[in-house]
Amino acid sequence: MRHLVTLHDLESSEIVDIFALVQELKEKRNAGERPPLLQGRTMTQVFEKPSLRTRLSFESAMWELGGGASFFSCKEAGLDGRESIEDVARVIGRYSDVVTLRTFSHEMIERFAKNSQACVINALSDLSHPCQALTDLYTIQEITGDLSQQKIVYVGDGNNVAYSLANACAKLGVKFVVSSPEGFELKPEFVKSLMKHKPDTRLELESDPQKAVVDATVIYTDVWASMGQEAETEKRKKIFADYQVNSRLMAAADPQCRFMHCLPAKRGLEVTDEVLDSKHSIVFEQAENRKHLAKGLLVWLLQQS
Ligand code: CP
Ligand code: NVA
To answer: How many domains does the chain divide into?
Structure first.
């Protein structure tokens, strides 16, 4: 049984295979073909946090592939409330081929996966967002044609999205620079562990965003306060003020530099309208690719299981 709890669950060569499948399915979809590769297969989604892209990308992926999907809020599924998460996992695994989970605690997804007969996909936890990072690198590859020549600079909070991007870039040998205010950087133990697993990791930390973005071919940002951190919004606005992606920051990068954001964005905070709506912005291509990535990932995971 294969799960995707973090990107450590995938070998680099497997990511390359998944990207090839994503491309093939996307080309077919654009030509009007929807091969029913998952006919009769079922997916259950259990989410503790809100979602637009992740929920809809997996649901529409499943329908386009000929399968079916159900959704439960955590209140209905009762993750660690009405019954233990282990029991929920054992039950859902007997009904479904694949389960997507969006939780606060990352450990909850690990506990679920240990007890699941169905493939488990992390649809975001406080620690990681692997499907987003896979989509992001797929999108950069699709648009630029060569991941190895890119310098991706993530400006902002060292959060779940940043961790998964760092992991994905390490797996695919892409240069990744993270620029965060003091106290909000990627945790040193994470950086150490990444370097241990992949000594050739091209990861750099540079606290000054103006310096970090020199020669950047992609600037990426995410919200300053993630889901669950809403109470810190005002405090974080002050801390992150110098980390806004605006025209001045974009001007310090490569002239062809693309702008990316996993969305949802807080316009006027981590990114200005001017950048988000500019010709450099590929955020909606990125959002669309969540569905194509979900299709490739679902087909690949279910082929392995
Ligand atoms: N990017 C992303 O995961 O969006 P949602 O929170 O809307 O799923
Ligand atoms: N870091 C954000 C990502 C949302 C897709 C959050 O966890 O809320």
So the answer is: 2
Burial per residue of 258-284, b for 16 or more beta-carbon CB atoms within 10 angstroms, e otherwise: bbbbbbebeeebbbbeebbeeebbbbe
Mutate to test the pocket of ligand 2, among 51, 106, 161 (most ligand atoms within 8 A of CB): 161
Question: How far apart (Å, rounded) are the C-alpha atoms in residues 290 and 305?
Answer: 22
Residue 1: inside a domain = no
Whether 70 and 150 share a structural domain: no
Question: Do 86 and 124 belong to one domain?
Answer: yes
Query: Quick check: CB of 164 below 6 Å from ligand 2?
Result: no
Regarding the beta carbon of 226 and ligand 2, being less than 6 Å apart is answered yes
3 state DSSP class of 151: strand
How confident is the model over 227-274, as pLDDT tens digits?
A: 999 999 999 999 999 999 999 999 999 999 999 999 999 999 999 999
Name the catalytic one among 74, 222, 244, 292: 222
Active site residue 229: no
Q: Whole-model pTM above 0.90?
A: yes
First to last CA, the chain: 5
Of ligand 1's atoms, which has the minimum distance to the CA of residue 52?
7
Rounded percentage of the chain residues whose pLDDT exceeds 90: 95
- Asked if 38 contacts 66 with a C-beta cutoff of 8 angstroms, the reply is yes
Instruction: Tell me which residue range forms the domain holding 54.
Output: 7-129+289-304
Which CATH number goes with the domain that contains 85?
3.40.50.1370
In this structure, are 204 and 76 located in the same domain? no
| Residue 256 appears among annotated catalytic residues | no
Q: Is the pLDDT of residue 129 over 90?
A: yes
